[in-house]
Design brief:
alpha+beta, 41% helix, 4-stranded mixed sheet
């Protein structure tokens, strides 16, 4: 995602808070494949810490991509609690966020 895409998802998307992540979901109506973005602000820590957070969240999202439609754009904003969260808990939260994004 480009910066303009992030802004559009933030402004037009639905905010879904969680204990480990805050996600913004937008159905773009363009089936170009799901677009997933991650933001890791500097207040999370050094570059090493931010990269670790991004890798952990990205892996959990990768495992849930099959349940995501091709027109969705999602931006994940991790909270500091991601650093100490068990991977299983993080995966459950990502799954819950994706299920809430997609209307049944």
């Amino acid at each position: 995602l480009r910066p303009g895409d992030f802004r559009r998802v933030y402004q037009q998307g639905v905010r879904i808070p969680g204990s480990y992540l805050v996600a913004f979901c937008l159905d773009s109506k363009e089936p170009l494949g799901p677009k997933i973005g991650f933001t890791t602000p500097r207040k999370l820590g050094t570059a090493v810490v931010r990269n670790r957070v991004r890798r952990r969240v990205r892996e959990c999202v990768r495992r849930q991509l099959a349940g995501l439609g091709s027109s969705w754009e999602i931006v994940f904003n991790p909270r500091r609690t991601v650093l100490t969260a068990a991977i299983a808990d993080l995966e459950r939260e990502v799954k819950r966020i994706i299920e809430r994004c997609i209307p049944s």
